Amino acid sequence: MASRIFSAARSVRPTLSANVARQSRGYASAAPGGGPNYGLIFSVAGVTGLGAYAYLQYDPAAKAEITAKAYALESKAEAKIQGLKAEKDASNEGVGVISALIKDSWVPFTLNKVEPYNHNTQIYHFNFGEDGNDKISGGEVASALLVRSPTGEGEVKDDKGKPVIRPYTPISAPDQKGGLELMIKEYKDGKLTPYIASMKPGDQLLFKGPIQKYKYNANTFDRGLCIAGGSGITPMYQLISHSLTLPEDKTKWTLVFSNVTEKDILLRKEWDELAKKNPERLQVKYVLDQGPWGWKGETGFVTAPMISKLFPRSAESQSNEKVMAFVCGPPPQVKSLAGPKDGPRQGELQGALKELGYTESEVFKF
């Protein structure tokens, strides 16, 4: 029997070598069809693999026994290859820098630290794992990522039994290595934020992305107006802080940030520092529903007259300068300022900005 096996192995070696080379090339770009790739699988095993491959031709029963295992091994190898390909596709423009996020797959990140910010908001520090110290979150400004709870027991689902998925904008830079930070406000009646607020260091969340929201290029407009409400401040922080780091960028910014009370103002220290360091390029205007005694900022809802006061545009400037307005906040606020979004689409421009003469090409709703 042994001599017959090795004789068969010698007879199939040239053909098998050719098949392995051909199958390996095809496997790198597409999943093979017509059954498991025995040639590819056994090519890793050397001479023993050749003997086994030949023996299977004489024993159909043995071949049937390992078919399921062969399929499983091939599927695992394909998943690994596709994962590496996705990492490469999601890599940063920098040579050799790989994104920890994968656009089409959920990736678990581990919570390192929870940093309380105010009465209902915390900063969550996540790491990319033991092999992720040199990886980045990736993505171009401005982009967000998707978050959900891990599958299995304790998974957060909606009323229809589907997993609850939410988009968040990191407050950390896209090129920060090793991890990312999310600033998340807890809503007691929310689906996902109470779960996140209960997390402890060592727990995991699933992430996917990044999702491009608005592609920012330096000097594409002269002045930018950002109107944010509550936790809608995070994409504005990503956008403006990025712009201010670009030495060639001359764009000037005005941030109008509305909140219920003074203690609700998120990233206030960071905004004040940015404005102090960049007085020629950034003005920050805080708006409260009802300001406390001695409050020097604006009060009330953000309306067309208030926007005109904080971000004036003369008839001459409207024709001679390029402006861009960004809006992010609770849906009622977005609706009153620029009209509701149409799902993932921008929707028709309405509200205060249309009243002030802004066009659809001059307004972006996050």
Question: In CATH terms, what is the fold-level topology of the domain at 223-365?
Answer: Rossmann fold
What fraction of the residues are assigned to beta strands by DSSP? 15-25%
- Coarse structural class: alpha/beta
Query: Can you tell me the CATH superfamily of the domain at 223-365?
Result: Nucleotide-binding domain of ferredoxin-NADP reductase (FNR) module
Summarize the biggest pleated sheet: 6 strands, antiparallel
Order of helices and strands: HHHHEEEEEHEEHEHEEHHEHHE
- Would you report the number of β strands? 12
Regarding CATH, which class of the domain at 223-365?
Answer: Alpha Beta
Mean pLDDT: 81
Cα end-to-end separation: 71 Å
Estimate percent helicity.
Answer: 25-40%
Q: Which segments are poorly predicted (pLDDT under 50) over 5 or more consecutive residues?
A: 1-56, 75-95
Radius of gyration: 28 Å
Question: Could you say which overall geometry the principal axes of the C-alpha atoms support?
Answer: globular
Textual characterization of the structure:
This is NADH-cytochrome b5 reductase. Belongs to the flavoprotein pyridine nucleotide cytochrome reductase family. It is a single-pass membrane protein. Keywords: FAD, Flavoprotein, Membrane, Mitochondrion, Mitochondrion outer membrane, NAD, Oxidoreductase, Transmembrane, Transmembrane helix. It is found in: Mitochondrion outer membrane. The protein has 366 residues and is an alpha/beta fold. Among the domains are: 106 residues, Beta Barrel (Elongation Factor Tu (Ef-tu), domain 3), CATH 2.40.30; 143 residues, Nucleotide-binding domain of ferredoxin-NADP reductase (FNR) module (Rossmann fold). It contains eleven helices and twelve strands. The strands form two sheets. The protein has a six-stranded antiparallel beta sheet. It has a six-stranded parallel beta sheet with strand order 10-9-8-7-11-12, sandwiched between helices. β8, α7 and β9 form a beta-alpha-beta unit. α1 crosses α3. The longest helix has 30 residues. The protein is globular, with a radius of gyration of 28 Å.
